[in-house]
Amino acid sequence: MFNFSLTNQIILLALLLIVSAFFSISETSLMSLNRYRLKHLAKSGNTGAKLASELLQETDKLLSVILLCNNFSNAAAATLVTVIAVQLYGNQEIIIMTGTLITTFLILIFSEISPKVIAAAHPEKLALSCSYILYPLLKVLYPIVLFVNIFVLGVLKIFNIKINFTQKNVITMDELKSIISDSGKFIPNKNKSLLLNLIDLEKVTIDEIMMPHTSIESINLGQPIEDILTKIENFHHNRILVKKQDNEGIHGVLEINKLFKLYIKENMQPLSHDELISQIDSPYFIPSGTTIYKQMQKFQDNQEKIGLIVNEHGEFIGLVTLEDILEEVIGEFNIELPSKSSKIIFDEDGWIVDGGISIRELNKKLTLNLPTKGPKTLNGLILEFFEDIPEPNTSFKINKIAFEIINAQDKIVKSVKIYRNLNKSKI
């Protein structure tokens, strides 16, 4: 080799740098591959993807062959540069040192940094192409790779380091949400929202989407039928709570639409007490803290659409419907009057918000970052913040968001103003 002409030696040096660059590209591109995208391409019949998948199933052997060939190329290049330098300038220490520095610079720029930057920018295209060379190369060098790996595994054992390359690739829920959020144009925004909402069903509880008991309209069966019907006429919701005559227990839930249909059927004649009772659905109780996903399954299994939520003491705390759960998945749709959107009213410099609105719903609609651990409603969050019932016109901040109490009565914050711009608040 040393009898080559200077020109041939320079050409050989360039080839060695190119070979080293190839293995640097191979390493970075294969390790940067999206494994799920790769699996899809392999199933679609892409030969390069199939080869890459097989190579990545034996990551230890793949890295061994890449590093062996890369280090061999770099060592050969370093030796060759030294030979060239000695031939040109003589066998002196300064010449050898200079040759070493030049070699290091050339390898870093042309064989390491530049190739790896390019590979990181185009991992899929380069990895699939490199696999056509790496796959047969691994087969040829397999005995050498196996021999080297014996020593590698021995060193790892000495330091009690356990490596498992056969472990399946799994992702957490948070990672999956990040993948969906970062999918860009491949998934429409509406579908992104749908998928993210479906994932959240596993950890979101019904307490976060329920209508609190203080906001639920109710009737008492102990009252005269005329008073009950008059009261119903002024209700704003389709579903109302029906209390027993002693006003201590819950008799069930009444859908006004069903009552209206019966009224039409009876030729708009005044309904009797018994006819009213016949339209009442038996109460279906749900323990507080049940996840939305689990409750959706229970609604399906029990053929129910309305659930009354009770706490650990058996106290009624709220109401949730199948429509509430569906809204968490697909977004809002109008079923009752008024719609839930009436809980938020746009104002000149902010929003007027119902105190009974859930924090989760508020965060979603107004893109806020209010804490969801602890109280589930805005009223609960404010009461926890003050540890008291705040007076109207009281201004405060939570997570750098400015609030002002509009109305508070009966130990409940009825309405709150949220400022869009902190500078416009009274704080």
How would you describe what is shown here?
It is a single chain. This protein has 427 residues and is α+β, with helices and mostly antiparallel strands. It has three domains: 6-158, no CATH class; 206-322, CBS-domain (Roll), CATH 3.10.580.10; 340-424, Uridine Diphospho-n-acetylenolpyruvylglucosamine Reductase, domain 3 (2-Layer Sandwich). It contains 16 helices and 13 strands. The protein has helices at 6-31, 35-43, 47-57, 59-89, 93-121, 123-140, 142-158, 173-181, 189-200, 225-233, 256-265, 273-278, 292-302, 322-330, 359-366, 378-386, and strands at residues 211-212, 218-220, 239-243, 250-255, 280-281, 285-287, 306-310, 316-321, 344-347, 350-354, 395-398, 401-409, 412-419. The strands form three sheets. The chain has a five-stranded antiparallel β-sheet, with helices on one face. Helix 1 packs parallel to helix 5 (93-121). Residues 335-341 have low confidence and may be disordered.
Write the layout of secondary structure elements.
Elements: H1 6-31, H2 35-43, H3 47-57, H4 59-89, H5 93-121, H6 123-140, H7 142-158, H8 173-181, H9 189-200, E1 211-212, E2 218-220, H10 225-233, E3 239-243, E4 250-255, H11 256-265, H12 273-278, E5 280-281, E6 285-287, H13 292-302, E7 306-310, E8 316-321, H14 322-330, E9 344-347, E10 350-354, H15 359-366, H16 378-386, E11 395-398, E12 401-409, E13 412-419
Parallel strand pairs: 2-3, 6-7
Antiparallel strand pairs: 1-8, 3-4, 4-5, 7-8, 9-10, 10-13, 11-12, 12-13
Helix pairs in contact: 1-4, 1-5, 1-6, 2-3, 3-6, 4-5, 4-7, 8-9
